[in-house]
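Translate structure to sequence.
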């Protein structure tokens, strides 16, 4: 019996190259669809509607501006906020920063350093 160590390359192979992508999933409900509709108008954002959820993916950075959601909903400014966003969002990838007027998603943690007070200087012993 002959054995071989060669095998077909797996499509599930690990790849640790940075994707430069960030994103989140939303519940497929009224608020989730509203957020997705607003995010679809942004140049670097791709929205994928699935039966039970909505994927929102972006290259490098994505801003969810609350006043844009308020306007699309026909609500007064301040209706949509970080708490409302968190309630509609199922999961996210990338660094997520909540500010008073928006949530910002970053693909690379280094890009969010100034927002989270992270010092990128090399540590010297």
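Result:
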């Amino acid at each position: 019996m002959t054995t071989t160590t060669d095998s077909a390359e797996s499509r599930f192979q690990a790849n640790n190259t940075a994707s430069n992508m960030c994103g989140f999933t939303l519940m497929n409900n009224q608020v989730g669809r509203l957020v997705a509709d607003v995010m679809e108008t942004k140049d670097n954002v791709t929205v994928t509607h699935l039966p039970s959820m909505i994927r929102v993916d972006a290259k490098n950075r994505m801003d969810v501006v609350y006043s844009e959601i308020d306007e699309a909903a026909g609500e007064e400014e301040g209706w949509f906020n970080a708490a409302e966003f968190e309630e509609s969002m199922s999961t996210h990838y990338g660094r997520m920063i909540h500010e008073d007027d928006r949530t910002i998603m970053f693909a690379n943690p280094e890009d969010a350093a100034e927002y989270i007070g992270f010092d990128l200087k090399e540590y010297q012993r």
